[in-house]
Every structure is written in structure tokens, then in C-alpha cells.
Specification:
Length: 99
């Protein structure tokens, strides 16, 4: 759906569990990620799929350090959700390992 919007030499990350037709461009970097599968089967929580993909993106282009993401989670999440931080960190780490 968004393949045509990616600029030349850009990055396209596509969810390969649900989307069966792969992107076809050869002027961009394309990463197929089974994010739904990893989040639901390995992490047992689909809601952390976005953190998994964030980990992948961070690994691809080093926009921030993992430690910075963890600190941001602590600051952004309300205290009542801090018990979810370890799961989110695990998802980030899993995403970083998918590359």
C-alpha cells in the first residue's frame, strides 16, 4: 500500500505474516518481518508488535540506543503500566535480532 510513497534509497519494512505479496521495488531497502507471528507466538502479546518493529528500525539505522528507548518507556508510560516494560524491552531486543 505504501511502497510507492517510499523515497529512492529509503527503507520499507513490511509485515510478512499477514501481507503475502512482497514489495517489488529495487531502489529501496526492503525488510520482510514476521512481526505478527513473533509478537503473538514468541512474545504472547500482539500489542508489542510495534516495539518489535521499532527495535528492527533502530538496528537498521541506529537512530537511538536501546537504553534510550528503555528510559523513554519509563518516562512515557504511566506508573501503573511499568510492569509491561520488561515485555516491551524483550520485543525491542527481538526486533533488533531479526536483522
Amino acid at each position: 500500500k505504501f511502497e510507492s510513497r517510499v523515497k529512492k534509497d529509503g527503507i520499507l519494512i513490511w509485515e510478512s505474516t499477514m501481507i503475502k505479496e512482497p514489495p517489488t521495488r529495487n531502489d529501496i531497502k526492503i525488510y520482510a518481518v514476521p512481526a505478527v507471528e513473533k509478537a503473538t507466538h514468541d512474545l504472547k502479546n500482539l500489542k508489542v508488535m510495534n516495539m518489535l518493529l521499532l527495535g528492527l528500525l533502530v538496528k537498521i539505522n541506529n537512530i537511538v540506543k536501546k537504553e534510550t528507548l528503555v528510559q523513554a518507556l519509563k518516562e512515557a508510560l504511566p506508573e501503573r503500566h511499568h510492569h509491561l516494560i520488561p515485555l516491551n524491552v524483550k520485543a525491542i531486543e527481538m526486533g533488533m535480532k531479526l536483522i
